[in-house]
Amino acid sequence: MNLRENVMAIYNGEQPDYYGDLMAAVEFITDPQFLKDSIIPQDGKEYKDSWGTVKMFLPGSPGPHPHLTPENIVIKDIEKWQEQLIVPSIEDFDYSELKQQVDAINRDEKLVCFFCPAGIFERSHFLMGVENALISYLEYPDEMKALLRVIADHKIEYIKRIAKECQPDIIFYHDDWGTKQNLFLPPSVWREIIKPLQKEISDAIHECGMIYMHHADCICQPIVKDMVEIGVDIWQGVIPQNDIVEIQRITEGKLAMIGGIDGPKIDIENITEEEIRAEVRRAIDTYCPGGRFFPSIPNGVCFREWNNEIYFDELKSYGKMFAEEHPVKMQNQV
């Protein structure tokens, strides 16, 4: 099997040649809006993205982040959000480079993946700050529903435009809904405000013939059945602080997952090679029997080079051995 065939075998609940990270079989294509908003100098100065959010890229940091203050947030009064929000247009982007990237990819070998960051929840707190956003979800639910309606409409329009321009295989949608301890919002609030709009976004992805892969490297266990109902095809970034085996049981094989290896546990100094290899084997042994599981570090890699080499070596060798010794049973197929 080539890379695409192998990961699609796992995705379809069929027998793979080896178990590994689905992300190794994708080719990312450049998001014009992401490039415009996030490619900023690593100089510690403030820059505004297309939504008006102030960002900063500190020297030595892994990437740019919102740098929000009471003075620079876009939405200072949730009851007057319509007067303060300016929704960016998607008509001014040059999609020619995107098409060239896709044309250069061998789609028999790889999956074309469109990186779609800043989901509706993340965008809401980018616009007003995390604390203000969380308070507003609880105290001003009607205003937040109206605000997120506009953000979701923009997402849907953009996803449909990307499908029209280059038809990716996967939409890699980012929206972190929690931390390592819990969800940011009570499940009831998430279901009332986020879920209906996320279902529309999912429907748009599927109507365009693409796979919906949702990144959330956090606790999502309280809402995993909702994720299935929404239509999430793949949950990428599954941290082991979730009870993954229980999630596999209650979702009945309907949710493919990527993750399970505790990156922070093995991406440290003064760790032995055997400890790194043991964590990789633990994840494969524990989660792959449940089917449709891609073992990986949720964020993709170890940042320490030595640790990363051992991690990938063990994933490659043990992932192949496990597949050979544990043939997939028919009940795992979807």
UniProtKB/TrEMBL annotation:
GO terms for biological process: methylation; porphyrin-containing compound biosynthetic process. It comes from the Bacteria. Residues 127-285 form the Uroporphyrinogen decarboxylase (URO-D) domain. One of its GO terms (molecular function) is uroporphyrinogen decarboxylase activity. The keyword Methyltransferase applies. Keywords: Methyltransferase, Transferase. This is Methyltransferase. The lineage of its organism: Bacteria, Bacillati, Bacillota, Clostridia, Eubacteriales.
